[in-house]
Amino acid sequence: MKLKYILISTVLLTSLSACEDMFEPAQENIRDVEQMFSDPNYASGLLGYGYAMLPYDNSSVSDVATDDAVTNDLTSTYSQMALGSWSSSNNPMEQWQARKATIQYINTFLSIVDRVSWSSTETTNKMFIDKLSGEAYALRALNYFYLLQAHAGWTEDGQLLGVPMVFEPEDMNSDFNLPRNEFSECVKFIFEDLDRAIDLLPLDFSNISSNAELPSKYQQIGAEMGGYNLVFGTYQRGRISGRIAEAIKAQVALLAASPAYREASGVTSETAANYAAIVLNRIGGVNGIDPRGNTWYMNTDELDNMGSGSVTAEIIWRGNRTNGDADWDMGITQEKNNFPPTLYGSGRINPTQNLVDAFPMANGYPISDAVNSGYDASNPYVNRDPRLTDYVLYNGSTYKGKTIITGLYADSENKTDDGLNKIGTSTRTGYYLRKLLREDCNPNPSALNPKYHFPVRIRYTEIFLAYAEAANDAWGPTGTGGNAYSAYDVVKALRSRGGVGTDNGDAYLESIKNDVAKMTDLIRNERRIELCFENKRFWDIRRWNLPLNETARGIRIEQATGNSLKYTEIDVEIRNYQDYMYHGPIPYSETLKWRNLQQNKGW
Questions:
Q1: How confident is the model at residue 308 (pLDDT cuts 50, 70, 90)?
Q2: Which of 320, 361, 382, 402 has its CA nearest to residue 502?
Q3: Which of 109, 340, 387, 464 could form a cystine bridge with 46, CB 3.0-4.6 A?
Q4: What is the largest CA-CA distance in the chain?
Q5: Any idea what DSSP says for residue 557?
Q6: 546: number of Cβ within 10 Å
């Protein structure tokens, strides 16, 4: 959070600093909107606010409110929410204030963007207007998407409502007592904004080498290569592009076509699948899957040598790369928070037994299949899906040259602070987080060694899984709907990349490839595994209408006879969600102020 405020301050101060009369422009030091027309730096601060307030978390936060994890930080508001403190006036998942404030800035920017002098060259000025307008439309759509995800829901009178849609800047004369738009209307407006953005923005920001490569619309107005590269070139990488807008559109469509919303959203699974396919077809469909995409966070050759604004084959959109060691910086914070205590970490995020059980065996069969899986409860981590080792530190894992012991062995040699509930920073479940962390970092206070990290906003894997989910629902496991690949094709490719079913042709997948219901369960499980700890699980559980109150479980490991170990499952947290919590609340304070703002059912 501190980083976000620093970014906001930096963006706004930078956008204002070019004005010589910044501190003496008028008697009250107030600059009005008209002054932006001749000062592009000042005007761009409005759009800069939209980027500074992007709705993404830089680390895993909400998974501890799901069946995938708990935390040993007992002051965590997400943990407290899961234990029963969630209300319309106490909502860690709230997006209302931040998104609406950002939309106000963006609406103001859109109201003046075509009146600002961005360049003294007419054609370059036109290109700037197109580009900046496209970014603003995409940012507004993104903010409305996050508002819908957090606050849309069914009301007492049976309506599926979204949020009030506002497209003009508000002032003291505006009517703030607005009713919520229908969910379907909100989705329609979001799609329209994204279509505008896609029309105005390049697919990617890249330089051209001749005037002949100019888009025809800019050739017709006499634009030049130099002006185009200034506006749409590689220097702009990292800002919202047409490709990113297409990916956001696929995310919105998947939400709308999900079981919790599809009844009144106006969006079908076929539509959602086709929007995802637009993104995936640009990289060749399943042939474009990054072979190392599931371990992007530890592909150090890519992380350490990434150029400014560039992305890997797995990443559609990312934040700035950083290797600082300040308390708000990503360079080592995740390792400080989540390494086991013997590695100078605080062990904050503890994966659950629930999540560990979701990983199949390496042969592809779920561990619940007693006949085919080969699962051995007395040796539970042997021959498992290799992604389990990549994402979770379990008893006996080797990490940073050290064996991590989470069990409660009797001998003093192995009874370390990494053991279950040993100290305040020990695991509560018998597991520690490995995903998102760099093994070559060192959080030892006397020898800090930060490394490059970057926040991932959208991954191709997420869009592949969105396609698989929607395509299976629309056309069945092997249907394509006119596309070149099916849900089955996507799942097979992702599992093969993870090392699952590679020795037996993924016999389990083959056995269910004609069963829609079983494929649905498998796709959801693959999404759970591939996107774990990326702040997706909470929203997925709710949009699928899956049980919210699954007890978070762990494992207690003790010495048995001889050298054998005894594994006993334990209940760690009894969750306390109510049935109406499949849709989040409108903030209580807002419903008190505005009588037309209808609350979701149950809140």
A1: confident
A2: 361
A3: 109
A4: 85
A5: E
A6: 16
Q: At what angle do helices 487-498 and 460-475 cross, to 10 degrees?
A: 140
Among positive and negative, which fits the CA dihedral 376, 382, 387, 389? positive
8 Å CB contact between 443 and 337: no
Q: What is the pLDDT of residues 190-226, one digit of tens each?
A: 999 999 999 999 999 999 999 999 999 999 999 999 9
- Distance between alpha carbon 360 and the CA centroid of its chain, in Å? 24
Residue with tokens 């490569």: 213
In Å, how far are 99, 149, 178, 458, 546 from 94, measured between CA atoms?
9, 10, 19, 21, 21
Please compute the mean of the pLDDT values over residues 563-589 and round it to a whole number.
Answer: 96
Q: ∠469-473-478 over CA atoms, to 5°?
A: 85
Average pLDDT over residues 492-505: 98
Q: How many CA atoms lie within 13 A of 471 on its CB side?
A: 29
What are the angstrom distances between the C-alpha of 438 and each of 115, 248, 295, 298, 466? 47, 28, 11, 6, 28
Q: Which of 66, 10, 35 is nearest to 552 (CA)?
A: 66
Cα–Cα distance, 184 to 298 (Å, whole number): 40
pLDDT digit string, tens, across residues 509-559 = 999 999 999 999 999 999 999 999 999 999 999 999 999 999 999 999 999
pLDDT value of residue 35: 74
The pTM for the full model equals 0.94
Helix (H) or strand (E) holding 230: helix 225-232
Q: Give me 228's structure tokens.
A: 């185009």
Q: At residue 563, does pLDDT exceed 70?
A: yes
Neighbours of 60 (CB within 10 A): 23
For 283, 286, 487, the CA distances from 280, given in Å and listed in that order, are 6, 8, 13
Distances (CA, A) of 428 to 112, 213, 267, 345, 355: 54, 58, 42, 14, 14
Q: Give dist(CA 321, CA 316) in Å, integer.
A: 15
Distance CA 57, CA 455 (A): 8
Structure tokens at 219: 């050739």
Q: Chain centroid to CA 54: how far?
A: 11
State the pLDDT at residue 85.
97
Rg over alpha carbons for the chain, rounded to the nearest Å, is 25
Phi-psi map region of 87: left, alpha, beta (phi>0 left; psi -120 to 50 alpha): beta
In contact, 404 and 547? CB cutoff 8 Å: no
| pLDDT value at residue 562 | 79
Does position 2 have pLDDT exceeding 80, yes or no? no
Burial class for 26, CB neighbours closer than 10 Å (0-12, 13-18, 19+): exposed
Cα-flanking dihedrals φ and ψ of residue 293, to 5°?
-65, -25
What would the mean pLDDT of 350-355 be, rounded to a whole number?
A: 98
Residue 23 has pLDDT above 50, yes or no: no
> Is the per-residue pLDDT at 22 higher than 60?
no
Instruction: Compute the distance between CA of residue 130 and CA of residue 79 in angstroms, rounded to an integer.
Output: 44
Contacts for 524 with CB less than 8 Å, ≥ 6 apart: 469, 540, 544, 546
For residue range 235-285, list pLDDT tens digits in order. 999 999 999 999 999 999 999 999 999 999 999 999 999 999 999 999 999
Residues in the chain: 603
Q: What percent of the chain has pLDDT over 90?
A: 89
